[in-house]
Amino acid sequence: MVSSGIDFYPKWLFNGPPVSTSRGSAAENIAEFALAAIFAASKRLPDIWVHDSQWNFTALTPLKGTTLGILGFGAIGRSLAAKAQALGIKVLALRESKTPFEVEGVEAARDIHELFSRSDHLVLAAPLTEATLHIVDSAVLASAKPGLHLINIARGGLLDHGALLEALDNGSIGLASLDVTEPEPLPDGHPLYVHPRVRLSPHTSAISSNSRHEIADSFLANLERFLNGLALENQANVQRGY
Fold first, then answer.
1. Are residues 168 and 117 part of one domain?
2. CA Rg, the chain, in Å?
3. What is the model's pTM?
4. Residue-range definition of the domain harbouring residue 238
5. pLDDT digit string, tens, across residues 165-184
6. Catalytic: 199?
7. Annotated catalytic, 212?
8. Judgement on whether residues 91 and 190 belong to the same structural domain of the protein
């Protein structure tokens, strides 16, 4: 399948021949998108563009020394962490597995509340499963460092949108950059479309001019393994949920 998660697909699909996902093929694209959202927020883009002679100088926030939180640490988290560290950003992460992080220097958060309380920017990069549905709820958002920039490039269902709107209105969350929502697309008139501290994109972070080649390369490599009797990479696991 062409996606990383399996939550969009009917369960009967996994009762026949083995199914593999394209997990990891778009990790670089998504990590770059998350960084672009962080740069845009810190450098106040596009708000600082001028259109006349009335120039007002604005102090912009440096990224060096800030803390990036990452919820979930698969291929996207690994790519994002390495890129962020190269910019002098501290990386704090939380994953379901207790295995060490594959990127040197990444600090493990004790729990999701510490992750939210210490992060200046926080990227949701976890799969959507029964265990992670609405994992970011009102209690978690209440733990956020004031002014937190929350970025969701994973699945809309990770985040309780009603709780998010409340947190945006009361100042717990300073900005939300959402590439995914629940449902997709949101219905016309939904408050997330017009909220002044929400930046909404149409689930496009994984899509690039190279996407067809990236997905095809992943599929063909797995097809060769299958034909040679080797174990598939990225085989979908219904129990795990991705």
1. yes
2. 19
3. 0.84
4. 214-242
5. 999 999 999 999 999 999 99
6. no
7. no
8. yes
